[in-house]
Amino acid sequence: xxxxxxxxxxxxxxxxxxxxxxxxxxxxxxxxxxxxxxxxxxxxxxxxxxxxxxxxxxxxxxxxxxxxxxxxxxxxxxxxxxxxxxxxxxxxxxxxxxxxxxxxxxxxxxxxxxxxxxxxxxxxxxxxxxxxxxxxxxxxxxxxxxxxxxxxxxxxxxxxxxxxxxxxxxxxxxxxxxxxxxxxxxxxxxxxxxxxxxxxxxxxxxxxxxxxxxxxxxxxxxxxxxxxxxxxxxxxxxxxxxxxxxxxxxxxxxxxxxxxxxxxxxxxxxxxxxxxxxxxxxxxxxxxxxxxxxxxxxxxxxxxxxxx
Length: 308
What we know:
- The chain is an alpha/beta fold.
- The chain has helices at 12-23, 58-65, 79-84, 86-107, 141-160, 185-194, 214-223, 243-254, 278-284, 292-307; strands spanning 3-7, 27-32, 47-50, 69-72, 111-117, 163-169, 171-173, 199-202, 208-209, 211-213, 232-235, 241-242, 260-263.
- The protein has 10 helices and 13 strands.
- Helix 6 packs across helix 10 (292-307).
- The termini are far apart.
């Protein structure tokens, strides 16, 4: 079994990944500043570093711990915040990511697996579902900075032979999302319905996303440990679902109606986002197992339990 560090391991996806890695018998260290992650999400069997990825001591800590693999999930993930404060987003998602790569390089890490974004990197495109070969024109600083760190990963591979794989997630959802600072649209709407609160639909509600369940994402992350592929792989369902369809699925799972109101569309957000997953099938031998209906049902059940 391997010695693995998970940055962002107290977050929604990261903590779910940590649980799965520990079940497989790996030794796991969680690195998280707890700005958006939650201490109670950290598995007690994992070592925990409450630390920012920009910390000056990171390389020293890596050197003393001798990790085999690093999963880099720590990030500023809110597109709206990146639009409002692109300097902050750059500092965390580029400079923080570089600090992790330097620590990995200096300490002899075998491979870095990066969690990137498919939805925000490609921008508006006519190629739907969008393959990895599509030209990337991000519409937000968040997408720009994720793409920047991807290029740095390739640089570290070409110059220092630090192995890597990049997984570009579509819109991930599932249990543990809403209680932290990582609330995606499904998390926001399920929490609102569970609390009988109204929700705002930005734009006309016809904008589409490709929603992939967190357990499927974690399965892809684990498979990425063993592949020899230096590049980007979409992790998605390749299915477009608009806001009204998403709301209908949540209402069905909850057996009640969500109160909604309309507001103008927000800057930096795409109208359509749907990713091809053919490369994931070919390279990772992966495809999603959880249907949208089932995933929404599991998610709402978890959220409702937190309300009680």
